[in-house]
Specification:
Length: 275
Amino acid sequence: MPEPPLLPPSALPTASPVKKDRRALRAVLRWTAAVVVFAAVGTAAVTGVIGMERTDVPGLATESDGRWEYPTLTKPVLPSGSPGPFAETNKAGTHHADLRDLVLPAPKGAKPDTVLGGADGWLPTKDFLAEFAPEDDAVDELDQVFTDYGLRHIAARGWTTPDGTRTRIYLLQFNTAVVADEVFSVELTGYGSPRYDLRGIDGTVSRDEDFPVRSELLDIERAAYVESKPYGEEQVRQAYLSAADTLAVVVQSRKGATEAIPFQQTVVLQSQLLD
């Protein structure tokens, strides 16, 4: 007997107009895939989203697939008359919603990281830079990068799940989408590995080839990496997302090894909130 669907048909997303930009050639393929893989991508809300369909990832066909139980995700209501970040009329690609309301909430049973709350929900840049290894003046270089590109502010959230996995999510907002995309593509990411090592990395970091390509969203650029064996006491996974005027950084680490499915689930849900 086939497994019942994760979400009722009413929760499935409806297609939005295809953007006439540099991603147009990939629009049909990615949007079709997103309908199959994800739920509730809309302009007003992401309703009842839990994550990827089990059958869309090889070997995932039962309840015990390792995914976390996230609360119902709802996008904040935009100020009256404000376009979405990817609307044709929004030339700067501005997220008009409060960035603090766009950070993915913690899953059920997780212990919040109170430090990442920052003052009034805004995290000082120095606290974000603490994620990076201090060797080779990387922290000072990144600090200058963010100064040069006019980083406006950072919203963040973190938690630890019962299995010991630590998750940290950072949303960095810039003045325009062009600026954020340049920081993403020129300053932080490379094809094979990120340009700067995170703290706690002992092994080789490479592109996460197991991350399902079909899970990509049309408007969101993603670069995901995983620390390969041999690593030290913990393994680190990381992903960078370029979403209009906002750059997201998702980091997961765990003593022993991290699990791929919760990481992929977390990255995809954060992508949907920013879309």
